[in-house]
Amino acid sequence: MSVIVWGVPTESPVALLIDALDRQGTDAVILHPRRFASQTVEVAFRSGAVVGSLRTEGRTIDLGDVTGVYVRCVEPELLPELSGLAPDHPERRHAASVYAALTAFTEAAPASSGCRVASRLSSMASNMSKPYQAQRIQTAGFDTPETLLTDDPDEAAAFLDAHPGAIFKSASGVRSVVREFDPAVDIERLGRIRWCPVQFQENVRGRDVRVHVVGDEAYAAIVDSDATDYRYARAQVGKDAELARFDLPDDLAERCIGLATSLDLPFAGVDLKLAHDGRVVCFEVNPSPGYPWYESEAGLPISDALARWLAAA
Amino acid sequence: MILVLCDADDVAALWLVARLRAAGEQCLLVTSDLLSFARMRSQRIGRDGARALVRLDEVTVIETPDLVVNRMPAPPTAAWRHAAPAEREYATAELIAFVLSWLAGLQCPVRNRPEPECLAGPAPHDLLAAVQAHRAGLDCADASFGADVSPFPLLESALRAAGPGARPVHAVVLDGRILDPEGLARRAGAPLPARLADAVEGFAAAIGANRALIGIDFVVAGRWWFAGSTPLPDLPTAGDTLVRDLTRLSERVPA
Fold it and tell me: Which of B151, B131, B203, B136 lies closest to A109 in space, CA to CA?
């Protein structure tokens, strides 16, 4: 039995997982997105089941022998090897066909055979809209920050007055640095929101906790930082955030696992804040968490848990 | 008020608006372009849930419609058509985020609520659709999803399995029910198999379309071969049954 690792092996989340699979003696089939030329994937629907095979680096694997797939792929259009090539160039078409076949397999295999996928690309898409995801988060029993999406400068100004220190950030999955609204600098720019709604949020004061859900397990780290966005603490407050293992209360762990399950994300990074007013506020669920920082700094065995989960189908 | 969201060239949506108005319904047609140039788009999400307001002009405000028929496959980006590519891409992502959240948060029935991977509603991958259709009891032909696969693998495989003389037909399915099954049988030139209605209901539930308006394609030649599903059904094929059932939906008090 094998686990497919669909990602760039030198990228740290992928590298840690490959090491963990090796430690537990699981055969890892690495599908490097940039080595598409040496890969062939055949996927088919036959008599009600998903079948197929893949060939990479001289090996052929029956997809029926795959227990799990870790998805941290790169879309063909982003591959440097393909830049400048015409859309119908054979290399571009081949890369696209490999990507399409693997997407088909990862979308359907969990329903067809119980193969474990962390995570399906379609499921990762819930993170494309943070306010949409916030509504799903509320359904799972968490508080979310008071949020306004608007393209009306007057409405935004009223919200900012009512929520001193409010922050703004992208509403989509496009990565943005979370920043406090600074009236002295930003008030002049409010008029620019006219053509596209912008997301404003109350600034919840408290301690950040990142929970990594792996199947039905949860691993948490608590963050010590004064930065608005602790990922960019050095730039924002001149000092890196410090992480430590955090013993998550059982009920909170169960809610995090339930939330990730409801989003069909067996591997997820749940961003919480233990607010000074006693609330547990959930900001978002990262569908493909970059976990190595939390693993190395807080000593969380996330890659081992992920490797176990992928091999256990 | 029934709100119909669509692209300006969506003939099926325009047909629906005309029929709803002819049936005496108050119906607001909002195209993607109109939404792109709206005076105000706003949504609040907090401890009290979500509420939204879209002001199209001085008099037209969308706040609490009775029913939304959503047929927008793409976000309202017309205002960004001439922007620099990087700006346009960012705005597109943000507008997808807004539309997804806005329609997800409305209290009234919405057919279809957008899905993160498709704003128009449930749109499972073809291979997953085949797996779920087979499980639900629909006839599914073998199909390939490997190199150089067709853009319509399920339709092509269904046509191949059915052989010469097969007839493609389109079923409009609302909340798991085939609308106007008699008309569908007429178009197919064959009676509906006894188990088809149950299988369609099971398929709709499996793909998250038990509260959705979808189309299912079949290729009929003795057997009814499943040939794919779409969140953008060809509405006129369901005729007055669709108009009547949507009107009833708009009259329901939300739970």
Answer: B131
